[in-house]
Amino acid sequence: MERIAIACDHGGYELKEMIAGFLDSQEVGVIDCGTDSTESVDYPIYGKKCAEMVASGEADRGIVVCGSGIGISIAANKVKGIRCALCTSEEMAELSRKHNNANMLALGARTTDPVTAMNILIKWYNTEFEGGRHQRRVDMLDEM
Ligand code: RB5
């Protein structure tokens, strides 16, 4: 069973709950790293927590949400081994998997409407890495 870690700040809480519902329906093992309400919290804490689950191998992939998706994606990308893609379209989600083997997805709950966000999530979840010429570049990223 694939294990996916999810996390958010207060701005991303409602979308994170929707994401958890979708992943449950796919029989994915969801590891919820919080936050657990709309009470104000600091996104670096949650981005780091989720990224560390992925980097350590406790989770296969991760999904993070904040208001814009920017802060929490920056936090996740500070953790070695993480390739977190902030996506605002299905095309970006598809490319982030096919070309960059993004092991984390970031979404902005205040900048992307919920239907689009869920479609981005579904595309990202279902798209595989193409490997080939992209592998060398991903390896270069991981060496940084
Ligand atoms: C919180 O108000 C907001 O700054 C945060 O959710 C996010 O957008 C940061 O990048």
Description:
With 144 residues, the protein is α/β, with parallel strands linked by helices. The chain has a single domain, classed as 3-Layer(aba) Sandwich (Ribose 5-phosphate Isomerase B, Chain: A). It is 47% helix and 17% strand. The chain has helices at 13-25, 43-55, 70-77, 90-98, 114-126, 133-143; strands at 3-8, 29-32, 61-66, 84-86, 104-108. A five-stranded parallel beta sheet has the order 2-1-3-5-4, sandwiched between helices. Helix 2 packs across helix 3 (70-77) and helix 4 (90-98) packs parallel to helix 5. The chain is globular and about 45 Å long. The N and C termini lie far apart (30 Å). The protein binds D-ribose. D-ribose binds next to helix 3.
Q: What's the architecture in CATH terms? A: 3-Layer(aba) Sandwich
Structural class: alpha/beta
Main sheet record: 5 strands, parallel
Number of domains: 1
CATH class division: Alpha Beta
CATH topology: the name is: Ribose 5-phosphate Isomerase B, Chain: A
CATH homology-level superfamily: Sugar-phosphate isomerase, RpiB/LacA/LacB
Mean pLDDT: 97
Strand content: 15-25%
How many β-strands, per DSSP?
Answer: 5
Explain briefly what this protein structure is.
This protein is of the alpha/beta class. It has helices spanning 13-25, 43-55, 70-77, 90-98, 114-126, 133-143; strands at residues 3-8, 29-32, 61-66, 84-86, 104-108.
Please supply descriptive tags for the structure shown above.
144 residues; binds D-ribose; globular; Ribose 5-phosphate Isomerase B, Chain: A; 5 strands; 6 helices; five-stranded parallel β-sheet; alpha/beta
